[in-house]
Amino acid sequence: MKHVMLAGIVGLQVLWILGTAFTQEIRLGTGTVIRLETRPVDPRDLLRGDYVILNYAINTVWKDRFVGPVPEEEQAPGKTVYVVLAPQGGFHAVTRISLTPLKPGVGEVMITGKIAKGRWESSGSFRIEYGIERYYVPEGTGNPRGKITVDVAVSWNGKTSIKQVYIDGRPYAEVMASQKTR
Amino acid sequence: MKHADIQRLLEDGLISQQQHDLIAERYGLKESANRVLVVFSMIGAVLVVAGIILIIGSNWEEIPRAIKVAGGLFLMLGAYGGGYYLRDVRREHTVIGEMLYFLGAGLFLANIALIGQIYNLSSRSPNGILLWWIGIAGLPWVLRSLALHVASLIAFLLLLGCETFMGRGRLFFCGDQRIVAVWAVIGLAVYSLGTVLHRTSYRKFSKVTEVIGLLIFNAMSLPLIYKWFYHSYAWRNPPAMPGALAYLGICALTLILALWGLEKREGLDKTWRYVWGATLGGAVLMTIGAVWLSPIVAFENYYHAHSPAYNSSYWMFATVVLFVFAILQIQVGIKVSSSGYVNLAMVMIALIIISAYITLIGSMARTGLTFVAGGVLLIGTGIFLEKRRRVLLGTLRSSMPQEAK
Known about the structure:
The structure holds two protein chains of two kinds. Chain A is built from two helices and twelve strands. Chain A is of the alpha+beta class. Chain A has two domains: about 30 residues; about 150 residues, no CATH class. In chain A, strands 1, 2, 3, 9, 10, 11 and 12 form a seven-stranded antiparallel sheet that branches. Chain A starts with a helix and ends with a helix. By secondary structure, chain B is an all-alpha fold. Chain B folds into two domains: about 120 residues, no CATH class; about 190 residues, no CATH class. Chain B has 15 helices and two strands. A two-stranded antiparallel ribbon of chain B has the order 1-2. In chain B, a hairpin with a 5-residue loop joins strand 1 and strand 2. The two termini of chain B are about 15 Å apart. At the A-B interface, helix 1 and strand 9 of A face helix 4, helix 5, helix 6 and helix 7 of B.
């Protein structure tokens, strides 16, 4: 009985690891790819080493883009929102946002995010986080120079994963490797 | 009689696990282990894991994602499998088996971090710790593994730490030093849980849980006896509400667990159960008072024109309470045959005396003579306390059966 229960608990641990990896791989392999514009900063995660914080243009959304009811300021943080993006000048930008799922039009993509604490009434805008705000990089390479753009894979249900990060149009790792060899 | 003898009786079904634990505790029988083998095995295991991590790390970018995930899984399953084989199948190298279980639990956390890094997952840090704790919480009870119990306790305390200290934590209490009062009570809650475990079939988890709880309580309550600890303007602000309610909840839980656990605590007669129970209750009330009462007994004191600060006399009350607590902790430690209780309390008494000296005498120290006198006093106190500690531990050992020595 003991070994069955041990196998069950360890099996659940393995299931989470493989399940998460599988879901991410499916999203990266089959999801719709969109390109986003960002501005980075350079923090460090004690548990996982270096990463770049990606501050997307779509993180800031104006209130007038809301379709349907706008959530109250006090209750807003943590609420799930559905954001429709459309290509504008080479990048995807926010066209509509709602507390209920929206149907994207031709060429549009819908992604899900959560309202974060921060700017609200005073500026007329608020911050949405999509779970793609961190990009893990080898230690000591978290301070890139240049324009950063990101390819993001979007699954059928609006979940997102980072597919590739570019510095001035070249893959992040490639740029950092060339800077090291110089 | 050796531990291996009762282990065989258990395996042959002649005694139950509870009887096994009772006999082992009554006669102080411990699982034998070749210490040299244990040390070499541990160093070897650490070197192998460190070597693998370094090799993987140096080629990290070139390694495909699937290999990274598989490597993490392989190490974790290897640790669990090795632990199970050595401790539960062969039943020979139980200590190494326990170490491998501990390593397996740690590698689950490493795998969570690895997956987060590979796929750039953004989440609150406590969520990863919560997942780790949930993943390993059941293992100690299934395997009756002390190492996994400690790992699970560490995971839970780490989770509580993140949730109480972090500004965005679900149990955020305050952004100032009052947080130590919360953690002092958490220590008492862990201690009380240990006393409850003592009356269950998991009594082998009891002592280590009690000592970890006392360690947290002693360490976290110590700042409360410092005068300067209360010099904070922030103490005027009431604690954040979800955290404050959780804090009071932990206080209530501590008292309930203590009442339940001490009701049948072996080694303590009825009088001592009441005395120790009341002491724990007093310690809980002292921490509550530190948060809510100390600003009331404080008076505003202007150090200089633009820097108002609270100057509470609560530290005196806290000093007395903690000193009495430490004295009684020694007595209880002797009664329940725990050197952990005694050693912790001795250190605590020494620290209380030193801090009282610094506060009462040190503040007036203007001449070298005061320091010399104070230093001699401290050295004398240290020698006295160490001698007393040795006498108490000697008494404790002589009261234990021959096998336990």
